[in-house]
Amino acid sequence: MTTDWPPAPEQELIGRDEELSQLRAFVDEAAVNGGAYMLVGDAGVGKTSLLNHTADYARLSGTRTLVTSGVQFEADISYAALNQILMPLLGGIDSIPVPLREALTVALGLGAGPVPSQLMVCNAALALLSAAAQQQPVVLVVDDIPWLDRSSAAVLGFVARRLKGTRIGFLGSFRNGEASFFERSGLDEVQVKPLSRDDAEILVRSRHPELLPRVKQRLLDESAGNPLALLELAHGVANRPSLTDVQALPLTSRIESTFAFRIDELAPETRRALLIVALDGREDLRELAKAGLELTALAPAERAGLVSVDLPTSGVRFLHPLMRSAVVQRSTSEEMRDVHRTIASHLEGDPERQAWHLAAAAIEPDEGIASRLEAAGRRALQRGDATRAIAALTRAAQLSPNPHDEGRRLAEAAYLGADITGELVNASKLLDEARRADPNLTASLHAAAAAAYMIVNGEGNVDTAFQLLHGAIETGDHGWAENNDELAEALGTLLLLCWWAGREDYWEIFYRTLDKVRPEPPELVLVQSRVFPDTARSQAADREHLAELIRKQNEEFEPNRIIRVNTSSVYVDLLAGCRPSAWRLVEDGRHGGAVRSSLGAYMHLCLDDYSSGRWQEGQQLADEAISVCREHGYDFIIWYFLLHEALFAAGRGEISTAFEWADELSRIAALRNAKGTERIGFHARTVAAVAAGDWDGAYRYATQMSPAGELAPYTPHALWVTYDLVEAAVRTGRDAAARAHVTAMIDLNLAAISPRMRMLSLGAQALIEEGETALELFERAITVPGTEAYPFDLAKIQLSYGERLRRNLNSVRAREVLHLALASFEGMGAVPWATRTKDELRAARDPNARTLVEAGAIQLTPQERAIAELAAEGMSNKQIAERLYLSPRTVSGHLYRVFPKLGITSRAALRDALLSVGGQGDN
Fold this sequence. Notes:
Elements: H1 17-33, E1 35-41, H2 47-60, E2 64-69, H3 80-86, H4 98-107, H5 118-135, E3 138-143, H6 150-160, E4 168-175, E5 188-192, H7 197-207, H8 213-223, H9 227-239, H10 251-264, H11 268-280, H12 285-290, H13 299-303, E6 307-310, E7 315-318, H14 321-329, H15 333-344, H16 351-361, H17 367-382, H18 386-398, H19 403-421, H20 424-437, H21 445-456, H22 462-475, H23 485-501, H24 504-514, H25 523-531, H26 540-551, H27 559-568, H28 579-590, H29 595-612, H30 615-632, H31 639-652, H32 655-671, H33 675-691, H34 695-705, H35 722-731, H36 735-747, H37 755-767, H38 771-782, H39 791-807, H40 811-828, H41 831-843, H42 849-855, H43 862-872, H44 877-884, H45 888-902, H46 910-917
Parallel strand pairs: 1-4, 1-5, 2-3, 3-4
Antiparallel strand pairs: 6-7
Helix pairs in contact: 1-2, 3-6, 4-5, 5-6, 7-9, 8-9, 9-10, 10-14, 11-14, 11-15, 15-16, 16-17, 17-18, 18-19, 19-20, 19-21, 19-29, 20-21, 21-22, 21-23, 22-23, 23-24, 23-33, 25-26, 25-27, 27-29, 28-29, 29-30, 29-31, 30-31, 31-32, 31-33, 32-33, 33-34, 34-35, 35-36, 35-37, 37-38, 37-39, 38-39, ...
């Protein structure tokens, strides 16, 4: 049932008719079809008031309304907000499947059991809401989303994206410029703007008609249309007129001063009650009463308009989040510690929250509290929240009576900062603090691993980092135990150093070290060590073990474990299955979480994008990742993305640009003596040389990775240029080298690694054969099941096959195969290969060859032509987007398709290309 909005006069929101109309319409629509809607604006602009009015409207409309808000202190407590918003629905929890029910009760602290995966909690929350919505429409109202605890933010973000057709609405608010773990991109939102001057004057006049005109004008000038600033300043001025003469403090300080004055007028028992509400973070009166809240003590604060108490729902909340901060600021440190101790004493069933409250109450070192907080950090890391883990370890270190424990915890926090969150500067400071706390920290593997990362990303080299970390492993007191997490992390880091260094003797040292672990090395390190470093010699059983780990990725959230599995998947061509977990890390990094781990995920996505033909996405990710590297000081691993910049440029035919990127990669690698990294850069040079038709150069570059006739140990990247090396050798008359390389591929049974490698192996064999044997091998190569997932490699073999068919006078089949190749090349924007394919089609007397060359590749849609013409005039993507009412990303996508259609590779060539096309493109 829908009713008209009936606010009482004192509840009216002046100047918000348009926003309220939109919000009411949303509630009505969500009651039928579901959906999500975000309010965004500056602090104090009125988002909370709009949400409160909309929540009232929803209740009157017959919609069940669930309300919560982010709390700064609660940000440390997993699923705190989710607990509050779902609590009214738990009476119906039996309506959802048992596995989801168990996951939700454990997550909300209502049951015992293993930590559930976040995906299970997400699905459980959605299932519970959906079950409730079967009875009546539901709307979730979540204020101050950036202050939500990380786990709740992830779950609510998941829910908000899946509400179409559910009779569930989601309303949330964000403050401008605040980062959040809640992903709101793509959700409908409205910017809540300041009030107009006229509306602001109406508001202040309606609330404070007694103000003198000059005072009122000053308030209007200084509040700039912000309702909170206007009303709070006006309230202070009305009660203490002398404040009107204060000019020195900025507006925000004046607001805080006003809050402080209102709090200081309250009795001590009321201030303590407010402090309990502020520090506990929960808004359930029953829980707060257990934490020592005297309900009667809140009455004066309620009368003063500081809090709202709703007895039917047992809820209490501050009328504005700034009031919570003011309450805390006006309290003494002893008052806060006393309240934290009181709250902690009632949290025996919630050890993580209890640990944080005990830590907040502590003023002296306490190993008991430090241990609890360290355990809380471990649980946070298992959930994928490395930032919270670092905070817990750092605070635990501060509370450690023993210098060794202090140093150990700080070293681990430094390692997590260097290896996961991307805080190299802070990690360096933490490591320095750890060494000061415990000068004998040399045996700490976390300290050595953190130092290794900082060495290679600074001005040191991989040799120094390798020697440092290997020495720490050999002399550590870990007992070579398989279950020693510190040892596992150090071995994983040592493996990466070996890969970057590209030295066989380092790999020999690594494997001897790994063999010392008893009873056997940690699972993920063992699998990675067998599959990743020397993929050409990996075993089928290890690859199948890896495939099983990938299938379990939805249950894994710890960043390092995800990265180990995904890295292991690179050269066995299993990255496609790792995309969901990689995207989770990228999104986490975008919101300030696992930034370093997200860089590994960016690389994995870029690698898969290149091989799977998603070149536009890969280019965008490479650009973004380079910015992240530069922002966070990862001056070495930026090479991951210099490689992809070079590969994508080479693929598009931007030869000089590709070599510039590759040269930059080589410079960075040479500075650190990273020979393995330097060799990988020859992949891009090989592709660029092929694009330029420089087959001799392609051969020289490919053999820099691994000589013809062998696949060098510990050089897995050479697998990806095997076909290019053989083709370049054949085209330059190096037949013996070509045959030797094919023999090496067969002897190592590369075809067993993956469908892609089977296709490349068969294609390489076809290149060195003649007649029907060659054609049969080509046909087998392009029909290997699963090779459609690798369109660039497949299209290159189709092109070679088409060329051979044409030479064997089988033009009909040649044209069929060449058209398949052309479609793939044009779809990716692989201009040089598309041009070669068109030439072959023309030579094969394709009936459409002239159209393909002269017109077919220049069929522009009206929108493509409009965008191309504006770009030819020199307008940027952003300017074009504004002119045509599109997004810059849409403009970029259209230009990405236009360039290969016109046979060009740069904006500079657009004008001439469009002139030569004339009116042909208007289709």
